[in-house]
Hints:
Layout lengths: L3 H4 L3 E5 L3 H13 L3 E5 L2 H11 L3 E7 L1 E2 L2 E2 H11 L5 E5 L5 H8 L4 E4 L4 H16 L2
Helix pairs in contact: 3-4
Amino acid sequence: MCNEEKRGAATVLIVDDDGRVLTSLRTILEGAGYRVVESREGGDATEIFRTEHEAIAAVIMGWKMPGLDGHEWVRTMLRIDPGARIIFCTAYEIPESIHQELESMVVGFLGKPIDHQRLLNLVQQAVAADEGH
């Protein structure tokens, strides 16, 4: 997965149906030097990821969005790229059984309101893991 594009600013795909959340995440991440690609819905995000997954170091996605089940979507992303680095960003309670299953599949979970330092730590962790491949 390492390529010339990733050696510059790492690319982060953010997926959330709330424009305020997208703006907040984009502002924080671009301020930290990341390149941001965003989507407000799962189908579009899936296509972005399908075509650009080799250049995407991390994906930050909402858990609940219209027409998108976070549990199924993470599986879709991992079928496209088994090395995908996914961070869930949610204000919703994820059922414990699903949370435990997802722990081995994702980098981590980020609550809303967004803790800027935790966000940057999780993205840095995802990027570092991605660069190791």
